[in-house]
Amino acid sequence: MSQAPEISLADVQRPNPAASRARALIALFGFGCALPIALAQQTPAPKTAAAPAAPDKPLAGLDTTSMDLTADPCQDMYQFACGHFAQNHPIPSDQPNIDPLYILYNRNTQELSGILEKAAAGGATRSPDEQKIGDYYKACMDTAAIEAGGLTPLKPLLDQIDALATGPTEKQKLSTLLGVLQRDGVDVFFGYGEQQDLKDATKQIAEVGQGGLGMPEKDYYLRTGAKDQKLRDEYVAHVARMLTLAGSPSAQANKDAHAIMAMETALAKASLGVVDMRDPEKTYHLVPVAKLEASVPDIDLGAFEDAIHSPHVGEINDSTPDYWAGMVGQIGSNDMQTIKAYLRYHLLTAVASRLPKRLDDENFNFYGRILDGQPEQRARWKRCSSAVNGALGEALGKVYVEQYFAGDSKARMLQMVHDIEDAMDRDIDQLDWMSPATKIKAKEKLHAVANKIGYPDKWRDYTKLIVKPDDALGDELRANAFENDRQLAKIGKPVDHLEWGMTPPTVNAYYDSSMNDINFPAGILQPPLFDRSEDAAVNYGHIGAIIGHELTHGFDDEGRKFNAKGNLDDWWTPDDLKQFEARTDCEVKEYGDFVAVDDVHLNGKLTLGENTADNGGLLLAYLAYMQRAKDDRIDLAAKKDGFTGPQRFYIAFAQNWCQVARPENVRSQVLQDPHSPDKFRVEGVIVNQPGFADAFSCKKGSPMVPVNSCRVW
Ligand SMILES: [Zn+2]
Question: Residue 24's pLDDT is what?
Fold first, then answer.
């Protein structure tokens, strides 16, 4: 998922910016999809609801209860595969949407909470990792202690903000404070992190760029229209309420909220939009640090680096050079009252889930209810399970994989990955539009892709992270700082190719263009996506299409710019590039014609990489399945559940993306997420699949088999 944070959000708050901003991860799905924001029971449940004694049953590999058998797959494949999904799966009141990935995620959270309840109750015999995950969970669950503590645990940081005064001597103080806040996970004014040098992936360098917005991205501040204006009014009211709840007199809080809105609007104007942020050429500007310093005269970079625990660097990727003039203008022109209120608000929202209920609720009201249409906050045990996965995911993951990813899971998954890589290899040979010279380079890249499956070979060491069973806020700040320090300590060091960008329990997957690897955490290698009791048709349709998706990311409009070594490098002949772009233009137009909600069309450019990966991924999975059937002498015509092998393959694929979503959620997804809403991940893809007409005996020219279709890969 672009340069944006693609690691699933575990809570309504935003993730630690330093921990996630600079990785070049492209995930399977993002903000608007099932996982990120919120969770709870399948049905409305009281907020004190405890975790169930046993996890829910998974969906069947081929879920016949979701199918509408009265629909004609040649007319409408989504309706055929998913037509009854909605009636069987109402959106839980604490969810913005529901789909099979959410159902898997929900079950996964139940499994994690089972592990955590046990670790929290355990005594002196716990291993150091069990102590940490158990105590982190216990503190997070202790809402009585959080309530009693009020804002006291935040006082040291609030005092530092209050101590800012006006005048030239404040430059160093402000720079230090920004470093302290960012290290603790608070997104203010800009972001600073580590990344592999886009043009030399063997190097780990510092990166700095735009940040500090409270609404999801630039255009939320700038779009005209009644709905957008209303959202901005609601944001201002929310900021004012947060400040009031934290002790400001309401008249002052109101004034501050309006001033914060004006300031963030100016920052938004200076920022790159979501489409530009996907373009590595627009976000790579390696410069001597003196050049950056000249752009930000209000920031003492050395003081900032000390505070955020970064080495003093000689060069840096200035990812958004056009941003600084706007930011410096705002720091210089706003009075200190506004700057302080801005810092205070962002601190409060970053840690709201560890603050008293009134602040936690208000934060959810804006980021959950208003932005995503979600009626209720998730149950506490679910939020705390996700929080432990975010803070100590490899300690939790070690226990998780022992219980839920055993046996030959890894070996079987590897075979599918190799089948799909082989299918791509053969397919490149057959492309009629690519020259032999570019084919050689494409294959070089394909053969260099590293496959990471389930969990890391080398586990992360959390020894130095202090976790206390009675300090929820402190635990979170320390975990954020610990992760920040781990990231920044990599600057100047060799790359660790064994490192993972997602934790093992995560229900997601990603491609990393600098590492040139595809990654499938154990959390997603579970039924129904990966089911050891199912046949090849169903597994290649489910997880096979996802493997193909991640692999194709290496060759989409963004991934194609990186070579086998993970370096930004133009390996395409001009003619081949022209051919490639004619093909991607076809997809930009195809998806841009879809209307997601009201009058909001999909953004064909924003979603191009994901759509390319969906289309290419399914084709590769199909080719791999056909070859596997041949090698293993599988009878394709034999029926199971009433369907042939190829039919089961396509139904399983479509059922990855059965969804019911609240309109607010669809809207917010389309405006900011590079992934198309689920329904279009079926409709947009099926029409381009050469194997589909055969599988269901569809006539050329029927809606699912149009005369003109698109194909990139
Ligand atoms: Zn993707």
Answer: 62
153, 481 Cβ separation under 8 angstroms: no
Question: Do residues 269 and 326 lie in contact, with contact meaning Cβ atoms separated by under 8 Å?
Answer: yes
* Cβ atoms 710, 583 nearer than 8 A: yes
DSSP H or E stretch at residue 520: strand 517-521
Percent of residues, the chain, with pLDDT higher than 90: 89
Identify whether the C-beta of residue 175 lies closer than 8 Å to the C-beta of residue 299. yes
* Dihedral angle sign, alpha carbons of residues 632, 635, 641, 643: positive
Under the banding of pLDDT at 50, 70 and 90, the label for residue 168 is low
* Residue 39, CA distances (Å) to 91, 109, 284, 368, 575 in order: 11, 9, 36, 11, 49
Q: What is the pLDDT of residues 177-224, one digit of tens each?
A: 999 999 999 999 999 999 999 999 999 999 999 999 999 999 999 999
User: Are the C-beta atoms of residues 550 and 28 closer than 8 Å to each other?
Assistant: yes
Residue of 18 and 362 predicted with greater confidence: 362
Secondary structure (H, E, C), 37-102: CCCCCCCCCCCCCCCCCCCCCCCCCCCHHHCCCCCCCCCCHHHHHHCCHHHHCCCCCCCCEECHHH
Cα(525)–Cα(3) distance, integer angstroms: 25
The distance from CA 369 to its chain's CA centroid, rounded to whole angstroms, is: 20
**242 Cα–ligand 1 center, Å:** 35
Residue-level pLDDT at 407: 82
Report the C-alpha gap between 253 and 267 in whole angstroms.
21
Q: How far is CA 661 from the centre of its chain?
A: 18
Handedness of CA 534, 536, 537, 541 (dihedral sign): positive
Distance CA 71, CA 68 (A): 6
**Cβ neighbours for 573, distance < 8 A, ≥ 6 positions apart:** 435, 437, 438
Q: What does residue 519 show for φ and ψ, rounded to 5 degrees? A: -135, 125
Tokens 């093909």 correspond to 583
**Residue 137 Cα to ligand 1 middle (Å):** 31
| CA gap 90, 41 in Å, rounded | 11
CA-to-CA distance for 610 and 6, rounded, in angstroms?
A: 13
Tell me: the pLDDT tens digits for 99-147? Answer: 999 999 999 999 999 999 999 998 889 999 999 999 999 999 999 999 9
The pLDDT tens digits for 467-520 are 999 999 999 999 999 999 999 999 999 999 999 999 999 999 999 999 999 999
Distance 674 CA to ligand 1 centre (A): 8
> Measured in angstroms, how far is the CA atom of residue 25 from the centroid of ligand 1?
9
pLDDT-based confidence at 35, cuts 50/70/90? very low
The amino acid at 567? N
Compute, in angstroms, the gap from residue 677 CA to the centroid of ligand 1: 12
Q: Strand pairing partners for 643? A: 640
Q: Which residues surround ligand 1, an ion (CB under 5 A)?
A: 610, 613
Distance (Å) from CA 553 to ligand 1 centroid: 7
Distance in Å, CA 27 to ligand 1 centroid: 5
Would you list the DSSP string of 368-407?
Answer: IIIHH---SPPPHHHHHHHHHHHHHHHHHHHHHHHHHS-T
How far out from the chain centre does Cα 678 lie?
A: 15
Report d(CA 589, CA 339) in Å as an integer. 43
Residue 45 is predicted with a pLDDT of: 40
pTM score over 0.85: yes
pLDDT at 49: 66
Measured in whole angstroms, the distance separating CA 214 from the mean position of its chain's CA atoms is: 18
Ligand 1: distance of its center to the CA of 195 in Å? 20
